[in-house]
Amino acid sequence: MSVIVKAVSKALPEFWRATEDILPFLDVWLKDQDERFIRKVKKIFEGAAVDKRYSFMSPEEVFSDLSFEERNDIYIREGIKLGAKCLETALEKAAWQPKDLDYIITVSCTGIMIPSLDAYLINALKLRQDIVRLPVTEMGCAAGVSGMIYAKNFLKANPGKRAAVIAVESPTATFQLNDFSMANIVSAAIFGDGAACVLLSSNEEDHGPEILAEEMYHFYDAEEMMGFKLTNTGLQMVLDVEVPETITSHFPAIIHPFLAKNNLTIEDIDHLIFHPGGKKIIQVVEELFGKLGKDINETKEVLRRYGNMSSATVLYVLESYMKKNPASGEKGLMLSFGPGFSAQRILLQW
């Protein structure tokens, strides 16, 4: 009995700006800062490899003194709308009805909702009253793949069932107006908002790329490298400058043993479905795998068009590959990183 990916969809907020259009907002935000510092910040934005990003709120609201409560209220309101939209789109792609779902997983780390998003989606789409719910928080950028791993394990244990994983994120809701640290600045430069949904199935009537294997990898003694600190003004980004280097040092242990367990090498992988954490991490991956003839062009394109949308981003990359309809037998490796510090991996075969 196999578990397959049936459909992937995305949903984008109404507000967006090209990076060049955000620069004037930086002048206002940084008006009391040293001129050299202002030039440095603008250079970070211009060099982030992000041409455009979307947002739950307008740029004027992002760069305003909205309270934590006000920002979180926007996160909740818009998150419910986007979550419902991408789930509806995915169901249409799959030709499923809302009541066909047996399991719903929602993932997010950029706001606080109780009840969680899944409760609102059950009501909005009139999902089954006995549907199994799992809200996943606090796993950051890795949660999109994590949610798929949880869904796969549920479906493997329950043949004939169907699941939805919905990722909704608003990193712009975590922007800190009075924080001029590099973590806040880099976060503002690379992150954007968005939502995505992936449908999975263990029903033999459904067809799509099969999940051959999945595995998590946890870094020791790296809890302080990435995450959020809860402050009176909201969720304050924690982002260590050593993240790309740390990932580089662990890459062989993350990739090769996982593939070897499945009697594969990196040469056997046709598609690298990697989370675009940022320009530096992309450069690391290209240096490691470029000489093997592998590319991460879809990953780079998602970063360029949308920015890093935390947990939803790798699902945008997966959607790009699903649209390309890879040939039967081709294999893909999904990979994302998140707080903990951790790496999450899925091996797919079309």
UniProtKB/TrEMBL annotation:
Organism field: Pedobacter frigidisoli
Example GO BP: polyketide biosynthetic process
Active-site positions on this chain: 141 (acyl-thioester intermediate)
Domain of life: Bacteria
Protein name in the entry: Type III polyketide synthase
Domain Chalcone/stilbene synthase N-terminal: 5-202
InterPro entries: Chalcone/stilbene_synt_C (IPR012328), Chalcone/stilbene_synt_N (IPR001099), Polyketide_synthase_type-III (IPR011141), Thiolase-like (IPR016039)
Gene3D superfamilies tied to this protein: 3.40.47.10
GO molecular function, a single term: acyltransferase activity, transferring groups other than amino-acyl groups
Phylogenetic placement of the source organism: Bacteria, Pseudomonadati, Bacteroidota, Sphingobacteriia, Sphingobacteriales
Keyword Transferase: yes
